[in-house]
Amino acid sequence: MNPEDPRTEYGDEPDTATPAAPVRFRTDIRGLMALVACCALLVWIAMTFHERLDPTRSVAVGLRSSSWLRRMETAENLRTMIDRDDRVAIFALASSANDEVLRARLSILEVLGRVTSEGIRNGQPEDAIHAGVAGLLRALVDPEPMAQQTALHGLGLIARTPGPHPIDRRALATAVADLLNDPKPSVRVSALFTIMACGDKNTQTPPLLVAKLEDPDVEVRATAFLALRDFPRDLDRHLPLLLCGLDDLQVRSSCLGYFQPDRPAGFTTKVIPVLVTALESRSRMVRRAAAGALCQLATDSRTAVAIPALMAVLREPTTVEPPLEPPGDLADPDPVPVAALALGRMAPDTPMAGKVLTALAEIAQSRNHRRQSAAIEAIGQFGPAAEPVVPLLIQAFHDGIARANWISYHSPYVIPGALARIAPGTRSAKASVKALIESLEPGIDVDDNIQSSTLQALVAFGAEAVPALPRIRELQKGVSQAVQRSAELTASSIEAAVIASKETGTVVGGKPQASNRPPG
After folding, report:
1. For 405-429, what is each residue's pLDDT tens digit?
2. Taking a C-beta distance cutoff of 8 angstroms, is the pair 227, 199 a contact?
């Protein structure tokens, strides 16, 4: 063997392969890449798990996305998480309220208003609430009307949120007031609704709002008339405008609400002279409205000065069509029913009570069902003083429930209540109870409401209603649950009254009862 031969003694060829070190380097690179991939996967899993635990904390990431669809989707998804609202979501939405894409911007603004409102309910920190409001206020100068309207809606939602409020509503109304002069009517209407949400009984009506009562756009005018109700402090000053608005068919529906008889008084007694004068207006709708406002104030004795004018309204014929009466009424313009209700509230215990009762009794015989029903309800307000009218009421009750078209006949619904106020303890009690029992007989076709009102009226008669107990017990087994419940309560009340009358020795069914109390 040649010692200089590079081959080994086993005949191997000299080793010309690549050194082992580079092979190990390639293995290390692959392992490092796998390690990085695993770490990234773990980070992704951790982030996903964290976002699922608290989804609102992913809002900031989603709203910074380069895709406007992702930004809009992030805001829309937050709509379903309102109950999990926190300051992170509010700040993120507020900072993105000027999104460059309109659709995404609208979604963000709409959700921002809702989230901020819920933040007030949930007691979120004031800095978050102020940030949400600031984001919406910045959108008021947006060139797109839809964005302005969405922001205004959100601000109105925040202003209406009840509870401890970190937002100064008066300052908010001032910030919005400039938009009442916006050239776009839709923006002016939205601004009015927001200002309505900021009103309260101690706030003076903003001058710009009053100016909108004569806006050239009908929707703006109608909304402005509605907005006045949220600033009742100086509503008296606007009464002439509201009365004039009743003759404007385009805004009439917005004005009618101020004059509904059962609405809480929006005006003060200072306007009584104006309302009395309005009862002489040529417009039936104005006369109706004036009677309605007086009805609201009827508990004040100072309204008695209106009784003669209201009596004159009662004498109006059924069909009155003055030349100035506009067509297409949005509500029944007949002032007589409302005048009757007003008289029923203010005339009892006054020197004119007798004359008023006589006039109401005449209206109670009218074939105009609305007039008749209102007159009967008013008669009931006189209590036992109206006993001479009881036979008339009983006859009207029989006529009403005997009519085939009783559904459109109003008096059966109000007569039981009137009898309950007038007849108990009087000579007419027995006849009244008999009439009420007859309306409960199986052959009488009346609805559940009439039966329930009749049962409730019998309660007022106490022990005098004992003859009604057999029929009442039958009704306890009837089909209607409402009537069953009313029958149970009525029977219990009458039975309790019977026990009480026996203890005191008062009259039951026309017979004196012996007292069970020991002498002395």
Report:
1. 444 456 677 899 999 999 999 999 9
2. yes
What is the number of other CB atoms lying within 10 angstroms of the CB of residue 21?
7
Amino acid (one-letter) located at 220: V
Compute, in degrees rounded to 10, the torsion defined by CA atoms 174, 178, 181, 187: -90
DSSP string, 237-285: GGHHHHHHHTT-TTTHHHHHGGG-TTSPP-S-GGGHHHHHHHTT-S-HH
What torsion, rounded to 10 degrees, do the Cα atoms 248, 249, 253, 256 define?
50
CA 216 to chain centre: 29
Helix/strand/coil for 424: coil
Better pLDDT: 406 or 499: 499
- Residue 514 DSSP class: -
User: In this predicted model, what pLDDT tens digit does every residue of 28-86 receive, in sequence order?
Assistant: 676 667 676 677 666 555 555 444 444 445 555 566 666 767 777 666 766 665 545 46
- The three-class DSSP label of residue 520 is coil
Structure pTM?
Answer: 0.74
The answer to whether 290 touches 278, Cβ cutoff 8 Å, is yes
